[in-house]
Amino acid sequence: MTLFTQTIKQAHEGLKTKKFSAEELAQACLERTKEVNGDLNAYVTVTEDVAIKAAKEVDAKIAKGKGIGILEGIPAGIKDILNTEGVKTTVCSPGLKDFVPPYDATAVKKLKEAGMVMLGKTNLDEFACGASTEHSCFGYTKNPWDLERVAGGSSGGSVAAVAADTCLFAIGTDTGGSIRQPASFCSVSGLKVTYGRVSRSGVTAFASSWDTIGPIAKTAEDLAYVLQAMAGQDPNDMTTPPQEVPDYASLLSGDVKGLKIGIPKEYFIEGVEDDVKESVLAAIKQLEAQGAEVHDISLPMTKYAVAMYYIATPAELSANLARFDGVRFGSKPDDEGEDLIDYYFKQRSVGFGPEIKRRIMMGTYVLSAGYYDAYYKKAQKVRTKIIEDFNNAFKNVDVICAPVSPFPAFKAGAKDDPLAMYMADALTIPASAAGVPGLSVPCGFSKKGLPIGLQIIGPQFEEGRILNVGHAFQQVTDWHTKRPTL
Q: Which residues are CB-contacts of 182 (< 8 A; sequence separation ≥ 6)?
């Protein structure tokens, strides 16, 4: 086995038994990154010196005979929206290409304390707004399974980095599907956590009442190890509740006997491709063969989710991005103009890409006098109805299983129409609206050889439950072990 193809658990055992050193593991991943990143564009910054320094510290600890934690010496990629002290955090926006934060995001800080080796910062859609990374100022990330296709978004860089074996895990953010959708497109495991489960402190905000930070890895088991390190209350983020953090790995029994799985009819309607339906239904049948019970359910508000999302989140984005004006944050325009209004026109024209400008305009419009009640307030009422859908469903079932995306990865440029692109999140937005956790695990391939993911959704703070379902599925299938040829 090549060092960089290992899971976290396998690498941990190798480090403990001194089959290889943390520095050798880091070097192997760095060499792999150099080999494939020119084709993939998964990383926008590679932090070789930082990685080697961290790896040597772990090796020194092992040399002294000290025990190591599960993430110590494990190479990782960090989405370039999480602050990293002394390392550029650009959000892949032209206005922040040179921004170097003075502190780590809480999630990054916790991972460093757990011994993670940071290999670099990964590509994303600007300010995490997109489903393909085509809105990155550094260019889009290519899908390792087909270089003509996108890796998905907005966490496409993090997912492609794991799929291409350049790192053993990565961190992404999921606002409306930005971890689950690319994980499905690239055949890796990705977890959207319950809103508030992981601190957002130090993470550039897109939509503050939606944003979540989660892990991407090769197996559901590896996701449990990473989540364990990141989860918990943070005094710097008042949306993190005093909810106990369980030992997620201990919850992975692999037993799903008697588990009630809900199958929402709204996730299998016209527009969901046949290959996707067949792979997902086959995966559910496999779980049924392992003892799970399958029940048909309805989530009737699903059809309104996309429309609601693209009213509610641009409104939050327009408010959050007001600070990026070249005075507080962001670069100044070369020509600062004649007065303040002229300055703002010039700064925001060069500081933001087309999709961000589009969403700021939409968000400002729906919050404006005369339209707030007609659009934003109504969207919030719809969100409440979606939450009620999930609450009612979980009175009768333990988890919900469905497709992640209506279709596999699409070719770059194939969805130039913004509305067509927005539909890529149609099956992930509802769980985000409800603030419940969702998991994507590989469950098959289309007739064209493109990966397909199974989405497993659970009640709030039941990450352990959905990770166990994913783990059980991966114990008897090998979809998650398949890797692209690069």
A: 151, 152, 153, 154, 155, 156, 158, 159, 160, 172, 190
154 among known catalytic residues: yes
What are the pLDDT digits (tens) for 30-82?
Answer: 999 999 999 999 999 999 999 999 999 999 999 999 999 999 999 999 999 99
Read off the tokens for 400.
């919900």
Q: Which residue has the tokens 């729906």?
A: 366
Return d(Cα 415, Cα 359) in angstroms, integer: 17
How many C-beta atoms surround the C-beta of residue 286 within 10 A? 16
For residue 26, give both structure tokens.
Answer: 């880091």
In this structure, which topology does domain 3-262+396-481 adopt according to CATH?
Amidase signature (AS) enzymes (3.90.1300)
Structural contact between residues 91 and 185, judged by C-beta atoms closer than 8 angstroms:
no
Pairing outcome for strands 75-79 and 169-174: parallel
97 is catalytic: no
List strands edge to edge, sheet with 451-457. Answer: 43-46, 117-122, 75-79, 169-174, 212-217, 189-192, 438-445, 451-457, 399-403, 260-264, 293-297
Please indicate whether residue 178 is annotated as part of the active site. yes
HEC string of 345-378 equals HHHHHHHCCHHHHHHHHHHHHHHCCCCHHHHHHH
Q: What is the tens place of the pLDDT at every residue in 387-418?
A: 999 999 999 999 999 999 999 999 999 988 88
Model-level pTM greater than 0.70? yes
Distance CA 380, CA 383 (A): 5
Catalytic-labelled residue, pool 21, 154, 187, 189: 154
Q: Is the dihedral of CA 238, 224, 49, 133 positive or negative?
A: negative
Q: Choosing from 93, 178, 199, 318, which is the catalytic residue?
A: 178
